[in-house]
Write a structure and sequence with these properties.
The chain is an all-alpha fold and 455 residues long. It has one domain: Hydantoin permease (Orthogonal Bundle). Helix 4 runs antiparallel to helix 13. It has 18 helices and no strands. Bound molecules: phenylalanine. Belongs to the sodium:neurotransmitter symporter (SNF) (TC 2.A.22) family.
């Protein structure tokens, strides 16, 4: 990258801008759609607690590592590794991130398309007077499509592309600043309605009363994978955001705020959903449809539910957009930097490619559902490989890079820029990125993939 390009990079003017952008990327379908559904699949509270442990011990240090790499290099993930570790294979970490981004956005677009369809369903009164069973068949009939879920998926992908091309990302983030708090308000309203349903307490027990004997190696690996997925880590998204952060900002505080916001929203989503799951007799391990099959029942049983439902799916779609743009940008950056393609062309090419793969994800819910690998359909396969393998692998390399390659002096320098951070905190961070994060990722990997049994 040449000098002009570097000097014309702008930095976020306000602290809130950085947090809004990073939180916009982190908070999305991961919190509201994926977290409840995989918590249901892996048995509830025990999964939640392992997930929280991973967030604190691995997610937070990896997030700080990504922000540090970005701010130090003032480049996106490809440029960053080339600049900080010239002529070394470290830039392959960026490639891993591109592979993850392509896979994630392919199925992410499908689920976001479901959310758009549910705006329409809510607005046309489709939830009215339906029993929980009918809600379930309505969902299943819809995702089996084949045509309409694909059209909504493509619509979402075009919206994502348009935002990246027109460059109104900052504008979107301005709206997101008040739309996301509004989403949180609606989720809290849903929580209140949900926990006051008959039979709600069983749902709360499911979510908060752990039975660790239910945990499997695959469940632990999925908790790790979801910590990365939900915080947008392991593929360089936050390297790019870090590159725009002013030297005067305290990145440790930013990382902490984003992590807390993301985690609180996921837990709130869990509280909104599980009591209702039990109250309406829905199977907690229903899979990717859990949220779509459950929440319409709750809306139906609350005052103003008609409007809340429209608003909820609308805001969920916006939350998905502020995440999907950050995923698309990883691929676009790759096309531009490594293949020297023009920005707009890169964006269109990436969108077309990812949408095409996404179509097969959508079809794997219906006409292609018989085609499986390791017992997973195409949709689940992309989700599993990207979240449970590629992102943690990316996180492993990123923590090794910061902890072992950059070394203590450089981290300390970057870390204390813009903040007066006490010495022991720096030491804790270094200890976490050097030993705990890579060690834990390696162990969970080997155990989860059945390559090694840690008992
Ligand atoms: N964190 C986003 C979500 O929870 C998804 C995402 C993953 C975004 C990886 C960027 C990178 O919805």
């Amino acid at each position: 990258m040449n000098k002009d390009k570097l000097s014309s990079r702008d930095v976020f003017s306000s602290k809130f801008g950085v947090i809004a952008a990073a939180a916009g990327s982190a908070v999305g379908l991961g919190n509201i759609w994926k977290f409840p559904y995989i918590t249901g699949v892996y048995g509830g509270a025990a999964f939640l607690f392992v997930y929280l442990g991973f967030i604190a011990l691995i997610g937070l240090p990896v997030m700080l590592s990504e922000l540090s790499i970005g701010r130090k290099s003032r480049r996106n993930v490809f440029g960053a590794f080339k600049y900080l570790a010239p002529n070394s294979p470290w830039k392959l970490v960026g490639m891993l991130g591109v592979a993850a981004a392509v896979m994630i956005l392919a199925f992410y677009g499908v689920v976001a398309g479901w959310s758009i369809d549910y705006i329409v369903k809510a607005a046309t009164g489709s939830f009215a007077a339906k029993s929980p069973n009918e809600m379930e068949s309505m969902f299943v009939n819809f995702i089996e499509g084949p045509v309409s879920p694909i059209l909504y998926q493509l619509l979402f992908m075009v919206m994502t592309m348009a935002i990246v091309i027109i460059g109104v990302k900052d504008g979107i983030e301005k709206y997101a600043k008040f739309l996301m708090p509004l989403l949180v308000v609606i989720i809290i309203v849903l929580c209140i309605r949900s926990v006051t349903l008959d039979g709600a307490s069983e749902g709360l027990r499911f979510l908060f009363n752990p039975d660790f004997s239910k945990l499997t190696g695959d469940g632990i690996l999925s908790a790790l994978g979801h910590a990365f997925f939900s915080l947008s880590l392991g593929m360089g998204t936050l390297v790019t955001y870090g590159s725009y952060i002013d030297d005067k900002n305290n990145i440790a505080v930013t990382a902490l705020q984003v992590t807390i916001a993301d985690t609180v929203i996921a837990i709130l989503a869990g509280i909104a959903i599980f009591p209702a799951v039990f109250a309406f007799g829905i199977e907690p391990s229903s899979g990717p449809g859990l949220v779509f099959m459950t929440l319409p029942n709750v809306f139906q049983q609350m005052p103003g539910g008609f409007f809340f439902a429209i608003l909820f799916f609308l805001l969920l779609t916006v939350a998905a957009l502020t995440s999907s743009i950050s995923i698309l940008e990883v691929v676009v950056a790759y096309f531009r930097e490594e293949l020297n393609l023009k920005r707009n062309f890169s964006t269109i090419l990436a969108t077309v490619m990812i949408s095409f793969i996404g179509v097969f994800c959508s079809l794997s819910m219906g006409i292609l559902k018989e085609y499986t690998m390791f017992g997973l359909n195409f949709f689940d396969l992309l989700d599993w490989i990207s979240a449970n393998i590629l992102l943690p692998l990316g996180g492993l390399f990123i923590s090794l890079f910061v902890g072992w390659y950059l070394g203590r002096k450089k981290i300390e320098e970057e870390f204390v820029k813009g903040a007066r951070i006490v010495n022991w905190l720096v030491m804790v961070f270094i200890f976490l990125v050097k030993f705990i994060a890579p060690g834990a990722i390696a162990i969970v990997f080997l155990h989860g993939l059945g390559l090694f049994n840690f008992g």
